[in-house]
Amino acid sequence: MRVSRCQYLTVFQSRLGVENLPTLILAAALALFVALGPLQGSTPAASHPKCARFASPAGSDASPGTRERPYRTVQKLVDELPSGQTGCLHRGKYRESEVTIGKPGIRLTGYRARRAVLIGRLRVNAARVKVDRLKLVGRNPRDLPSPTINADRVVFRDNNVFSPGGSSCFLLGGTTHVRHSVIVDNRVHDCGDTSTNFDHGIYMSDVDGARIIGNTIYDNGSRGIKIGPDSQSALIRGNVIDGNPIGLTFSGDEESTSSHNVVVHNVISNSTRWWNVQTYWPGEQGTGNVVRENCLHGGNSNPRYNERGGVSEEPGFASAHNLIAAPSYIDRG
Length: 333
Description:
The chain has 333 residues and is mostly beta strands. Helices cover 11% and strands 35% of the residues. The strands form two sheets. The protein has a 17-stranded parallel sheet that branches. The chain has an eleven-stranded parallel sheet with strand order 1-2-4-6-9-12-15-19-22-25-27, covered by helices on one side.
């Protein structure tokens, strides 16, 4: 059964004939979804929004925020949007050093499936916020992670997220404990500075029950996903994690550890400097962490890091029933 999954991936990709990595790794993820069936824990597909307020790069913050007379800034839109309502961005570029969402239950999305571009830091400080169908460029004057999630049950879906030369992209927690947030069906790439070891595609700290599902996570500054310190019971499923210096790390610090995190049915491949999967435990080691039924491929120029498909033998996680095979990305050879 595991062999047939990877054969399916290879056949699916070879029939596409596409040449760029982002499109190809998305195809790999889609093929994996078809082979495995629906993903447990995923959220329903985003529906076409009924917009209560609008913003446009050609608007004015003195306007009432209607479709015909939209606001100018994203910050004005989220400040004026009632809880439980949807704010829509007309297509175009919004340059704001920081946008903070402080109202629970709102949705921020692109209007009529047109992917607006927000350039600057996006911070979510309220529960049950949804952000979808946007291009989020995290570069900001203070080089802080973006998007930053500081609230429970926040959902980011179908966004294109990157921050070249900046900082990490997604930060879950860090300043407050975050529960049951979801990052699903996003592209997360080119996040941070490749000359450091501190910038990641997704960084989880002080988090319970996160769901990282169906994303393509590639070419980031350091790790594709950093689990911890203090990440508990995360589900990381159905992602393609490729071409990062490190694919994924289970980690703790001197005061906390990360436990019961499950990494299943992902493609984790071609880490450029170290392991596809590794750990960092300066204090107590994590327990109950599992890496199982993934497709793994080393691809590192240093053969040491290609052993076992690029999975280290460090303590703090169990590895089982993974398939070691090249996923046949066309431009990876």
